[in-house]
Amino acid sequence: MAGRDAKVAFIGLGHMGGPMAANLVAAGYPVTGFDVVPAALAAAHTAGVVVASSASGAALGADVIITMLPAGKHVFAAFEGEGPGGGLLAAAKPGALFLECSTISVEDARTAHEMVVASGHRGLDAPVSGGVVGAEAGTLTFMVGGSEEDFAAAGPILEVMGRRIVLCGGPGSGQAAKVCNNMILGVSMIAVSEAFVLGEKLGLSHQALFDVAANASGQCWSLTTNCPVPGPVPTSPANRDYQPGFAGALMAKDLGLAVEALNATGVDAVLGRAAEEIYREFALGGGAGTDFSGIINTIRDATGGVD
Ligand code: NAD
Known about the structure:
Layout: E1 8-11, H1 17-26, E2 31-34, H2 38-46, E3 50-51, H3 55-59, E4 64-67, H4 72-80, H5 88-91, E5 97-100, H6 106-118, E6 122-125, E7 128-129, H7 131-137, E8 140-145, H8 148-161, E9 162-169, H9 173-201, H10 206-213, H11 221-224, H12 248-265, H13 270-287, H14 295-303
The chain binds nicotinamide-adenine-dinucleotide (NAD).
Nicotinamide-adenine-dinucleotide binds near residues 16, 17 and 85.
Enzyme class: oxidoreductase
Protein name: 3-hydroxyisobutyrate dehydrogenase
Catalytic activity: 3-hydroxy-2-methylpropanoate + NAD(+) = 2-methyl-3-oxopropanoate + NADH + H(+)
C-alpha cells in the first residue's frame, strides 16, 4: 500500500517533521505538507514538499497521513479542530492510513487511534527516538503500536525515515515503549551524573571512573554515548558546552508523560517520579535548551562545588 506511488500528507514540518518529509521526497514519494508556521512550510517547499494551504487540503486524496506535532492537544486539533490546522479525519479518504509520530501520552494515543478508526480510517502510533540528527539521516527508531496488517502497509515508508522499526503491540504500545525507555534514560542520566560528582569529591578522575564503569556493571547509554563530563566520549554534548543532543525540555516533557502513565497504572516508581521533578526544575531553571546531560551541573551546584 505504501509503495513509492502512495500519496503522503505530512502535517507538522518542524525540527523533526521537516527532515522526515524531505527524506520521503528524496526517496520518490509524492508528499504534500502543511504546517501552521509559514517558515516551516517554506523550508519544506525548498526540500520538494508540495505545500498545501491547510491540513485538510494536504490530506485530500492521501493514502498515508503522517502527523509530527508538539503534543496530544495538537494531534486532536489537527484531527478534528476547525481552521487551517484541523479537519484531517473528515478530509481523509476512507481507509487512509494515519501514522501518528508525535510523542504523546499512551492514553491520548489510544484515544487518537479510536478517533481514527471511528472515522473509517486505519492508524498506528509510531513515535520516534534519534532526534533531529536521526530525522535528517533517516536513521530514526520507530516504536509502533497497531495491527500487524497496518504495520506491514506502513513498512516501506517508515524504512525511508528510520533504521529500526519495532512493532510493540496494539494501539498505544509504541508510546508505551517510548515512555518506558525515556524513563530509563532520565533516571540513568541522573544516576551517572551523581556518580561522577561523587567521584570528583572522592578524588577520582573522570577518565578513571569512566574506564571502570564503562566496562563494568555501571555501563549504560548515558555513560558510554552521552557521557555527562567532557573527555571520555569526545562526541558527547558535554564536550560542546552541553549543546543538544537531546534537550532538557524534551526530557522534561517525556518524563511528564511517564508520570501520567505511572499515575494511570498506579506503579510505585520512586525514581521515575523523582527524575520527572528533577528535569522539570532543570528545564524551568534554564536547562530547557541545553542537553539533558547538563543535569550534572545542577548536581554540582547543589553539592556546593568541587573540592
Ligand atoms: P517542533 O515544534 O519543531 O515541530 C512541530 C510542528 O508542528 C511545528 O512546526 C508547529 O508549527 C506544527 N504544528 C502544530 N500544530 C499544527 C497543526 N494543527 N497543523 C500543522 N502543523 C502544526 O517539534 P519537533 O521537535 O519537530 O517535535 C515533534 C514531535 O516529535 C514532538 O512530539 C516531540 O516530542 C517529538 N520528538 C522530538 C525529538 C527532537 O529531538 N526534536 C525527538 C524525538 C521525538
